[in-house]
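Before going further, it is useful to explain how the protein records used in this thesis are read. An example of such a record is reproduced below.

***
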Amino acid sequence: MAAECESCNCSAWAANDPSGVLSPHSFNRRAVRHDDVSLRITHCGVCFADVQWTRNLHHDSVYPLVPGHEIAGVVTEVGSDVMDFKLGDHVAVGTYINSCRDCDNCNSLLENHCSNFVFTFNGVDTDGTVTKGGYSSHIVVHERYCYKIPDGYPLEKAAPLACAGITVYTPMIRHNMNQPGKSLGVIGLGGLGHMAVKFGKAFGLNVTVLSTSESKRDEAINLLGADNFVVSSDKNQMESLKNSLDFIVDTASGDHPFDPYLALLKVRGVIALVGFPGEIRVHPASLNLGARTLSGSVVGGTKDTQEMINFCAVNKIYPNVEVIKIDYINEALERLVNRDVKYRFVIDIESSFK
C-alpha cells in the first residue's frame, strides 16, 4: 500500500474528520529509546472506542486520528536497558502506553487509574505528541506497557485480550468471581460479554446470559457454553431468577434499568459495570436490602493484564474473531455499530500493509 510520503516510517489508516471514514495515511514513529520496545504489528482488534473517537463522539478527537488499542505483534527492536523482551518475542499492547510511574496507583500496578495515563491513540504523550494506535504497521512503546504473549497463542486471538479480555477479567478477579460453583450473570453478548462467559466457565461458575434478544439463546448456550439464557425483557423469566446470582458482569453501554438486575443477586451479591450507559438510576432499596454492591471498572493494570493473558494461554481461552483486511475497516466499523459481528473484528495488519 503506497505511503503518502517517502520519508515517513509508518504506514497506517486514519480518520481525517468526524465522518469517521478511514483512508491510507503515513507518519513517523519515534526512534527507540533506551527503555522502549518496537514491534511489527501483525493484528489489531476493533473496539467500539475506535468508532467513538474516529467520529469525535467525545468531542476531543485530534485528526488525522489512527485508532486501535488491541495490538499484537512481534518485537523487532529493543532499547539498551530493556531486559524482559527480545527480538522475535510476541507482544501485546493495550489501551494505554504511558503513565506517570510515580503515583500510588502506578506503584500499585494500577496504571489504568493513573491520573496521567496516556491513551494508546488520541492521547497526548509526555513529549507533547498525539499518540497513534494499532491500525498501523509498527509501534514503539515503553517496555512497562508491553505484555508477553505465550508461545503458541495465536496473535489474532491475542489482540482482543488487550482490551475486551482485560476489561471483564479485572472486575471478576477483584470481586472474587473465580470461585467454582458460584453463579454468574452476564449482561450483553458482544465482544466483552462473550469473554465474560468464557472466563466464567473457566472459573467453574454457573453462567447465565441476560440478553434483550431471544435470537442469541442458541449461540450463548451451544457456541459459548453458557448454562442458562434469560430474556431480560421477559418479566416471568426474570422473576424466576430472583435472588439466585452471586455476581453479574454488566457489559451493556446503552441506557438500561439497573433495579431489575440487582433483584437477581443474592445477599451481598455484586454487579460489576464495565460499560458506559448515559446514566445510572438505582432505588436505594435495591442496594440496601440485601447488602448488594454496584461497582465500576475499566480495563486493568499491567500486572493483571499479563496474568490474564497467561491465564488465557494455560486454559486455552480464545476470543471468537472475524479476521479482516484493513481495506474493509469502514464496513467493519459500520457493522460494529449495527452489532453485526461475532464477536470481535481483528485486522490482519501484517497482510494489509504488504
